[in-house]
Amino acid sequence: MENIVLLLQKVLPVFLVLFLGILCRKKHLLTRDGINALKKVAVDIALPAVMFSAFATAEYSANSICVPLTMFTICCIALFLGVQLCRRLKIGGKLSPFLTAGFEAGMLGYALFVLLFPDEPLSSFAMVDLGQVLFVFTVYKILLAGKNNARDALKEALSAPTVWAILLGLLFGATGLYKALQPSGISRILDAVTDFISAPTSVLILLAIGFDLAPKQIQWKKIGSLMALRLGVSALLLVVVLLFDRFVLGQMIHTGALLLMFVLPPPFVLPVFADVESERADVSSALSALTFVSIVLYAVLAVVL
After folding, report:
1. Contacts of 181 (CB under 8 A, 6+ apart)
2. Domains and CATH numbers, the chain
3. Segment-wise mean pLDDT, segments of 10 residues, the chain, 305 residues
4. How many CB atoms neighbour CB 123 within 10 A?
5. Quick check: pTM over 0.70?
6. Residue 242: how many CA atoms within 13 Å on its side-chain side?
């Protein structure tokens, strides 16, 4: 009975808020503009507070840099595999290879990690996320934008509140400033502020995802190859990272955080770069389907872990 209660604590809030998001769409309780506003509050206000707190409280050492470096390298390998597999399997579309790389940790990962591991420090997930964040805001976006727009892509990255929150968190955590402020009580004040601002993050994000989630409208057969490509590459590289972490890094990476990261969908920003309407529809449909699969896999993790 206790195990069932613990499982429901991890799974029920997610599905309940997703259902509320779907209900808001069907009953017209929220408009598209309203959902976009909620997303902006979540991404530009609440999520940066989460990011700052996670990176400010993380433990840093000469060895800990191996974790983000590993994830950055894995993301680069994933994109390379995506390009090669799309050529060999004759999967069309300029954006198809990009479905294999990157993870939507910001809009989904942090919210799920808090529910899946309520007693674990969020910094465990943040250190895994750091490498893929660097990848997404550099290699990923620059290649998506093209050579002519590389400067604009970097400018956009530097204008993102989440990026500045990560940099500020790294400054406080890696320099030891956060710990140095603990005796004076300033660290506790920072914790109180960030906890208060970040409190609605999970609800806002899951509500917005539920609003956009429409399984019946997904063209499952049409995007089957794109889904298989993403899931196949992710499964392969997850095994590689787990083995590398065990035999090379000495299990430095939080296993639960790693498993959760690899079940997440690709970055939600991908359809923005589609310059062909039909490709935008296919990529958006694939993202919706992969998000649905991610939620199901999250439920599986909740049962197994």
Report:
1. 187, 190
2. 2-304 (1.20.1530)
3. 77 92 92 90 92 92 89 96 94 90 92 91 93 90 71 72 92 94 93 93 90 79 89 97 94 94 92 71 87 93 89
4. 21
5. yes
6. 14
